[in-house]
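Same chain as my last thread, 63 residues:
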Amino acid sequence: MSEVIQMAKSKEVRYYKPNMGALRGRIGESIIETILNTPRPDHKELDREADEYLRIRLAGKTK
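reply #2:
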């Protein structure tokens, strides 16, 4: 007896970008309110550290 085994073809997986304009109801309203009320990040400390690091690196190359 000969048996033939067929492998199932794998289905293609598709991912979709969510549509922020399609959020409805209390959940959508809550998400949009949270986005609008989130404070802007303060990068002053990070910028200061980056400038200090760059100054040290450039000072080391000139020696």
